[in-house]
Structure formats: C-alpha cells, structure tokens
What we know:
This protein is α+β, with helices and mostly antiparallel strands. 35% of the residues lie in helices and 29% in strands. It has six helices and eight strands. The protein has helices at 2-9, 14-22, 47-55, 59-82, 113-131, 172-181; strands at 31-45, 86-91, 94-100, 134-137, 140-159, 165-171, 188-191, 216-217. Strands 1, 2, 3, 4, 5, 6, 7 and 8 form an eight-stranded mixed beta sheet that branches. A hairpin with a 2-residue loop joins strand 4 (134-137) and strand 5. The longest helix is centred in the first third of the chain and has 24 residues, at 59-82. It is globular and about 50 Å long.
Amino acid sequence: MSDLIETLASYVPTLITRRLAVDPAPITAPTSETLPAAVLFADISGFTALTEHLAQKGPAGAEELTQHLNTYFGQLIDLIVLYGGDIVKFAGDALIALWPAFDGTGNYDPAFLPTALQQAARCSLEIQRQLNAYRVAADVSLSLKLTLGAGEVLTMHLGGVYGRWEFLVTGAPLIQVGLAGNYARPGDIILRPKPGHCCKPAPSVPCHPPSRFSQRRAEGRRCA
C-alpha cells in the first residue's frame, strides 16, 4: 500500500500533499494560500516541427511523438525534482515549477526567498546544459526557453462542480515569468524578479544586481 501511495503522490504537487498531511479531509469550499516562492516556467521549443516531421509516418508517428515527449519531459521533471522543485502545472508543451521559501523548520519565510531563487537558477542552468538542442530526429531537435520569477504566490482550489476542484497558482511571479517569456529564445534563461528577490552571489551561480531587466544566454552560465 505504501508503494501505491508513493506512486500516486508522484502525480500530485507537493503543495497539495503537504496540505493533506495536515488536514486529509476532502475540500468542500474554495481555498487559498499565499507563500513566498521562486517560479520556473519551462517552455519546450521545437514541438511543432517535431509533430510535423512525425505526422508523415501516420499512426506510428503519433506513438513516436508520445515516446519522445515522455522521454524529454521525464528528464526535465527529474532535474527539477533533484533540485528541490515542485511541479504544479503542465500546459501543453510547457510546465510551471515552484521552489517555496522554507526556513530551517519547514515553515514559509520570505527571508529565504533568495535561497529558493538561487536553487531554481542552479536547476535552470543544469536543465539547459543537459537538454538544450536535444536531438530527437535527423533534422529535428528540442530546446527550452526558461524564465524565472520570485515573490508571493497565491495558490487556490476553485470549482466544486461534481466534487471536482482545480488547483491554480497566480501572483506577481507568474506575471514576471509570462512577461519575460516574450523575450526568451531557445536556450535562454531569463530571470526577472523584483529588487530584493534576486539571488545572492555564489561561486556556482554568479549574478548581477537586479537593477535592470537583462537577458543572458544559458551558455554564459549567468543569471541577470
């Protein structure tokens, strides 16, 4: 039974399993919670070209497309989990992951937001190192556009029709990553937090002060 629970839990955001551990009662009314977190939006580039390429193979191409995406997403998910991220949403060929700012006792604390953002930045660099220009066919490759934000995230359970509840995330960090995505190119990591949320300098992730919005190629191993 414990293996089954662990398997099922792997499909659910940690934010939800954390709530269930405190109160396992089913949701009967809309809920909301705010928490400080770093946010990563990862958008796959090359999906359309891959789809068109494999469509020429008919039904076999559709199966091959599923296999390629499962493999690519699987590696992306493994890296995010390895670096302590919590995947909260899939949207087509993109996903959203959070790094909540926890203190040493497991409570939310905005003072630890720079640490959470730094971990998300480290994860982003490793993602681009392993998965940028990932060849899946002779003339087709997949890449990622990564954008990072940080601040107060609002999580909600809305709905209730037929007992179904949708888990949603919103807030300034989601707006940040959305705006930054307009400037991202495949292979990019764009960091756009508010002043004071920027990661502190560290040898493995050198950073510039967040006084301006800027863009760095992932190969440069910089966040700005």
